[in-house]
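Design request, tokens follow.
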């Protein structure tokens, strides 16, 4: 099972749906996790100490443990990662004794639909997930309002991703 994390609504959800279809064409089962709709509370240490880790985050952590890989579909927010994605990472990194546990050695594919080219976002995500111990695929899926999805390219990118997760 591959988890497809989408970090906004509208165009990124459409891109996540297309990615899910292309994964299915490669015989890969996937599930879209919309982080906006998940509506996790903003992380802070006081909230964690007083209320514990939210059940939604704990459930997500269990799904992440059994996933063979992740696809992150996010827009660029002010040349960086959207807050909803940063917040999810903050919460799930608090589950267990090792903050890297849910990312260590996971195969990750990056994708974006951004108003610009999304390069700053992709570089930020690549840096963060690499430091969390993930194996980030070398090519990204990039769309924008002026550059539609090149399905031949995304199929090739996801074929490579599929090869890696099947070997895991």
């Amino acid at each position: 099972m591959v988890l497809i994390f989408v970090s906004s609504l509208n165009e990124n959800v459409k891109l996540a749906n297309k990615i899910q279809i292309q994964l299915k064409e490669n015989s890969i089962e996937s599930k879209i996790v919309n982080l906006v709709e998940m509506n996790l509370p903003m992380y802070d240490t006081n909230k964690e100490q007083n209320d514990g880790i939210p059940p939604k985050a704990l459930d997500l952590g269990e799904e992440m443990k059994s996933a063979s890989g992740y696809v992150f579909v996010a827009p660029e927010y002010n040349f960086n990662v959207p807050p909803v994605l940063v917040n999810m990472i903050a919460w799930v990194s608090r589950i267990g004794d090792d903050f890297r546990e849910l990312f260590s050695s996971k195969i990750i594919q990056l994708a974006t639909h951004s108003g610009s080219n999304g390069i700053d976002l992709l570089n930020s995500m690549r840096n963060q997930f690499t430091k969390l111990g993930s194996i980030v695929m070398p090519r990204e899926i990039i769309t924008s309002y002026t550059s539609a999805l090149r399905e031949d390219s995304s199929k090739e990118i996801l074929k490579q991703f599929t090869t890696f997760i099947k070997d895991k």
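Comment from the thread starter after seeing the answer: thanks! The mean pLDDT is 96.
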